[in-house]
Amino acid sequence: MKGNGATERRIQPRAPIELRVEYKRFNTFLADYTKNISRGGTFIATKKPLPQGTEFRFQLTVPRLPKPLSLKGKVMWTTPVEDASRANPSGMGIEFLFDSDSERQDMSSLVERVIREQFGESLADRLLGR
User: Fold this and answer.
1) Radius of gyration of the chain from Cα atoms?
2) How confident is the model over 19-66, as pLDDT tens digits?
3) How far apart are CA 3 and CA 60, in angstroms?
4) What is the structure's pLDDT at 22?
5) In 3D, which of 65, 67, 23 has the Cα closest to residue 42?
6) What ranges in 1-130 are assigned the alpha helix state H?
7) CA–CA dist 107, 102 (Å, integer)
8) What is the arithmetic mean of pLDDT over 77-91?
9) 99-114: string of b/e by CB count within 10 Å (b at 16+)?
């Protein structure tokens, strides 16, 4: 479960954004949405979060990209439905996992580009902690 200090545990600043996420759970494909994204991870809003510690592959649909990104992530924390509120919806905090520094840098650049396109330069600089 997500603790009260979750915001303080974040290494990267997050930007509010909704992107479609698709992943597999027990031989069933699910489609949910992100609520925010950073260079290091995302929050997936879902009523059925995967268990904490689960590593999984997911597809992230990003505007202006010809096909969804295939990413690997790890569930770092969850908020179950019974503990959710309007300010803290049910879902799971995902840390992106990368096979190389090059892959990490590519994702970091992509997240920055998406945030700049979505919010403009000035607000993007604030959201990215610059």
Assistant:
1) 14
2) 788 888 777 777 777 777 777 888 999 998 999 999 999 988 877 778
3) 26
4) 83
5) 23
6) 6-9, 101-119, 121-127
7) 9
8) 91
9) eeeeeeeebbebbbeb
Asked whether 52 and 36 are in contact (CB, 8 A), the reply is no
Q: Which domains does the chain have, with CATH numbers?
A: 6-127 (2.40.10.220)
SS3 percent helix, strand, coil of the chain, rounded to 5, is: 25, 35, 40
What's the rounded Cα separation, in Å, for the pair 84 and 39?
25
Q: What does each C-alpha distance from 45 to 72, 128, 129 come to in angstroms?
A: 17, 22, 24
What is the Cα–Cα distance from 108 to 103, expressed in whole angstroms? 9
Question: The pTM is what?
Answer: 0.74
42 contacts 23 by C-beta, under 8 angstroms? no
* pLDDT tens string 110-121: 878 877 777 777
